[in-house]
């Protein structure tokens, strides 16, 4: 098989596995990202996410993660829900409605790798789902799956941004895609709507001000300066995606594992304020919300109620 045939085979299988799209780029040092990441870290925009400072070289060079790697196969998986929460409720980011995406995507990527090994031969690689020093969005953009927007999310025409980004890094040469152009234009909807003014300039998000950071990553008390600014979000935040014009094209996902527990959609603010450990475990049995534990969720709810 030549590069073109291999590539077509992989993309066809990715589609069959339920991925929204698949793009491929050459595994090489991310030159443009290096100064950008360095500057972001120097400005302490990672807040207490100290892990962002680790493995700087690996974040920029996939060959340091997978020996002999030649290609980065990037994939997108839609998570936009058919139904949303009760409007009289504290809010959870849509990505956390169903089963934790790490497990769902990892399984699909492992299936894709086994398929490649079965059809093409002795191929070595690793699956990455937002849990290793890989700049997922940069690779997806390099692979032509979208452009990084002013809210620092990957955006795609006709699809929007309500999808997960993950990749397989393999020691196999393939046909490479080219980046697409930026289609944000003069729009500043995400910058104008951010409740905590976390988008400090177009394409730069101060992570330490982001509601997702404050409600998930931050382990200490939420600083009082954000009182009244969390817009009802108790886990994550979708504001900059909800207002993005490209998301008017979002279509509901077809992944049963991402369907929410029925109680999650029906709960009112009162239900959340009275939630018990047993209910928390039942509603969020396999959810990413378990990351905050019940104590973290209660901290966020208390902060919203002040």
TrEMBL record:
Catalytic activities: epoxyqueuosine(34) in tRNA + AH2 = queuosine(34) in tRNA + A + H2O
Active site positions, chain numbering: 130
Cellular compartment(s): Cytoplasm
Keyword Cytoplasm assigned: yes
Residues engaged in binding cob(II)alamin: 59, 130, 151, 154, 212, 237-238
Coiled-coil region: none
GO molecular function terms attached to this record: epoxyqueuosine reductase activity
Taxonomy, superkingdom: Bacteria
Subunit-structure text: Monomer.
Stated role: Catalyzes the conversion of epoxyqueuosine (oQ) to queuosine (Q), which is a hypermodified base found in the wobble positions of tRNA(Asp), tRNA(Asn), tRNA(His) and tRNA(Tyr).
Record protein name field: Epoxyqueuosine reductase
Species whose genome carries this gene: Flagellimonas okinawensis
């Amino acid at each position: 098989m030549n590069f073109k045939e291999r590539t077509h085979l992989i993309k066809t299988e990715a589609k069959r596995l339920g991925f929204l799209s698949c793009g491929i780029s050459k595994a090489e040092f991310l030159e443009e990202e290096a100064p950008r990441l360095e500057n972001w870290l120097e400005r302490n925009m990672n807040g207490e996410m100290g892990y962002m400072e680790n493995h700087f070289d690996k974040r920029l060079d996939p060959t340091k993660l997978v020996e002999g790697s030649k290609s980065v196969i990037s994939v997108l998986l839609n998570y936009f829900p058919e139904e949303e929460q009760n409007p009289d409720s504290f809010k959870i980011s849509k990505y956390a409605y169903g089963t934790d995406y790490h497990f769902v995507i990892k399984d699909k990527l492992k299936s894709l790798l086994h398929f490649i090994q079965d059809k093409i031969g002795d191929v070595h690689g690793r699956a990455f789902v937002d849990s290793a020093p890989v700049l997922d969005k940069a690779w997806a953009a390099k692979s032509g799956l979208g452009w990084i927007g002013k809210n620092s999310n990957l955006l795609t025409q006709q699809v929007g941004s309500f999808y997960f980004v993950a990749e397989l890094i393999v020691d196999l040469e393939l046909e490479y895609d080219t980046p697409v152009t930026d289609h944000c234009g003069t729009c500043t909807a995400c910058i104008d709507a951010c409740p905590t003014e976390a988008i400090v300039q177009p394409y730069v998000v101060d992570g330490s001000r982001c509601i997702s950071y404050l409600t998930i990553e931050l382990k200490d008390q939420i600083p009082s300066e954000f009182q009244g600014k969390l817009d009802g979000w108790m886990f994550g935040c979708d504001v900059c995606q909800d207002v993005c014009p490209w998301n008017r094209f979002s279509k509901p996902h077809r992944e049963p594992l991402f369907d929410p527990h029925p109680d999650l959609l029906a709960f009112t603010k009162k239900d959340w304020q009275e939630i018990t450990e047993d209910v928390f475990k039942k509603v969020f049995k396999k959810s990413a919300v378990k990351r905050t534990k019940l104590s973290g969720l209660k901290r966020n709810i208390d902060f919203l109620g002040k």
